Amino acid sequence: MRMKQLLLGLFLTLNLAAVAQNSKKEVLFSIDDKPYYTDEFARVYKKNIDLVKDESQKDLNQYLELFIGYKLKINKANKLGLQNNPKYQTELKSYRSQLAKNYLTDSKVTKELIQEAYNRSLKEIKASHILLMVDENATPEDTLKAYKQIQDIRRKAIDGEDFGRLAEQYSQDPSAKENKGELGYFSVFRMIYPFESAAYKTEKGKISNVVRTRFGYHLIKVEDIRDNRGEITVAHIMINRPSDPVLAQKAKSTIQDIYKKLQQGESFETLAQQFSEDKSSAAKGGVLGRFSSGELSSEKFEDVAFSLTKEKPLSEPFESEFGWHIVKLMDKFPVKTYEQMETELDSKIRKDERSRLITNSMNEKLRKKFPLKRDDKLYALAAKTVTNDYYTSAWKRPTEGKDFEKPLFKIQEKPINATTFLEYVDKRQKNPIELKPINKAVDKLYEDFVDEQLNVYYNDDLEKEFPEFADVMEEYRDGLLLFDLMEKEIWEKSKTDTLGLENFYKSHEQNYKWKKRYDVLIASSTNPEFAKKARKMLEQGKSADFIKEKLNTKESVNIMISEGVYEEGNDVLPKNILSQPGVTETSQKGDYYFVAKVNKVIPEGSKKLEECKGKAINDYQQYLEENWVTALKKEFSIKVNQDVFEKVKKEIKI
């Protein structure tokens, strides 16, 4: 059991930092002629030594024995074919995919984007915009026409024409007719990345340069910049605002009456449940989900909510575009620190449009690292086979033609043939790119294909490229095998081998003993008078139910009673517990007063197997494991290079 706790636990404590290796790589020992080297032993020892609590295991001689035992088990797992288990292979593949993410992105660009996102998160921008829609795959003529028009609108705005009126007149954002392009306040990740960047780079009161997004061309006017207000949780009571003037006055009167009730001390939660017409929150006492600026559709509501403080947690009645409200502050959450937000920002960036910057940077690095030479004649031949049927997903890739089996290009020495490219084009038909004419679409598909193949090659080669990646994968691979092996050979056996467990228990019965035990009834109360009353009833032989019935009421629980058998030293037992049957004096611990009735004192004695089964199984597992390692040493041939080990001991310094 100790071996499992030491090595399985430690090997799965994965550390991606490369470990300095002072020892030259030599064969330290072999198992059935399979060599194990000094560099791995030194690396693992240094990596795990600070986590080892048992000082004896820091001794290199002891650690070598543990390490050999570990490798013996891995050899046994492979001998049993556990590495071929589909579940094992799936789990290993899944882990590798997760680990590889740290190597398959440009970390420098990622960190820059995280820092940029955090810096932006500290501010909130109020802006309005004008949009002229242009499809990403629009013709050059249509694109130029839209660009000239947006430039003309910008000139008018710069010359002093009202931006809101220009938005109302020209913007193709459907909401512009009503809101004159107003977007309210927003912070990072609330807008698409190019729009967000332009807004954050524009000074307060200024109009941005023309911005291109996937929706078209934008102009942005930054109206205000303020510090991020963080997030908030509030509850509210809402009365809808009817269009009828008489009913509207009645709604106002209702919210004012509710406010008076709150001032009289009535429960906000109860009043919200009873009167609030926001049915989505009324049942929850009016509590709304946590939100930040710009997340709700009412700026007025947000402003009132964020103005509340712990000293003034309740708003007066106010009217928004949806009705009358009273808002109660529940909690405020200030902007988090960079360290607190780093992981969250990283995750958001990978799902956001800005992730393209990371991908593009990585693709550029790979193209420089693995320069390609394309067979242009073969490419032209393959490209000609792709027709306009591609746009309707009706294109059929050629199934004949030996020419397409030739390499289109090579990544290092790995050939990528034209057939593989055409298969890629075929798959992309399910979600075709709209770029026209077809030759431009094929060229774009080819560039995407090259990037994909470079990333696949690089991913497959990570173990060679990064020694620390190979080390971690080897450790995880072995750790999974060890877990499966231990489960099969030790843990399940210790639970199902009832005869073996019983024999082990009998031969180690002296390890499973009860201390003196007390069969007791314990009564407790925060009021000493009730504790005294309970003591008197216990002396009279009254039952627990009788005592609770007499001393407790529907409105108040004055006495609590617990019954059971407890070992000597258990915190449940009062300090003045009796050594023979009887009722103790009242004692105090903290705010509680206790009295105990000892029904029986049970002397020390052996535990039955059923009473110590958990500990016995655990001990039996350790016993099986210790004997198992001895058996494995007989099953496999082990040779230790003692001279090499002596050198390793001199080179490793703790």
Overall description:
The strands form six sheets. Strands 14, 15, 16, 17 and 18 form a five-stranded antiparallel sheet that branches. A four-stranded antiparallel sheet has the order 4-3-6-5, with helices on both faces. It is built from 25 helices and 20 strands. By secondary structure, the protein is an alpha+beta fold. Strand 11 and strand 12 form a beta hairpin.
Low-confidence segments, ≥5 residues, pLDDT <50?
1-23
Number of helices: 25
Tell me the strand percentage band: 15-25%
Mean pLDDT metric: 89
The amount of helix comes to: 40-55%
Structural class: alpha+beta
- Gross geometry: flat
Q: Describe the sheet with the most strands.
A: 5 strands, antiparallel
Over the alpha carbons, how many angstroms does the gyration radius reach? 37 Å
Q: Number of DSSP strands?
A: 20
Distance between the termini: 26 Å
Primary descriptors:
flat; 17% strand; disordered N terminus; 20 strands; five-stranded antiparallel β-sheet; 654 residues; alpha+beta
